Amino acid sequence: MRIESPAFRNEDTIPVKYTCDGDDVSPALRWFDPPPNVKGFVLIMEDPDAPMGTFTHWILYNIPPSLSELPENIPKRPEVQGIGMQGVNDFGRIGYGGPCPPKTHPPHRYYFRLYALDSMLNLKPGAGLSEVKRAMNGHVIAEAYVMGRYGRRR
């Protein structure tokens, strides 16, 4: 399985549009070659370079197995019809929160990790990362990521 974004190449700079310095909308993503027995997907976006440890920017779960892409600008609601459920990020909000590293830092890395699961998660909308990871435990059958970088002008 692999994942990519039409907005940026793997390991390249994430355009300002998708950050706190721009429109702060989620980028489009698409994936290929999921396992044939996938029952649902989870997408987690994290910054491992954050000053206080890994920072979670986006949690999207119970993505239907029929999907192979996400459009740009997923609404920041707990449940998005036909797309899935969203959790609470480390900004304390539902949905996508774009890159926003401190201006004093070099560019950070942002990983968009897609997990293929053998079941949907028995969670309500608005779950936190620990709940989602606990529910995923033992159900991940494949995973892939695309990584983008972003740094703010000093």
From TrEMBL:
What superkingdom heads the lineage?
Archaea
InterPro entries with a match to the protein in the record: PEBP, PEBP-like_sf, YbhB_YbcL/LppC-like
Q: Name one Pfam family in it.
A: PBP
User: What is this protein's name?
Assistant: PEBP family protein
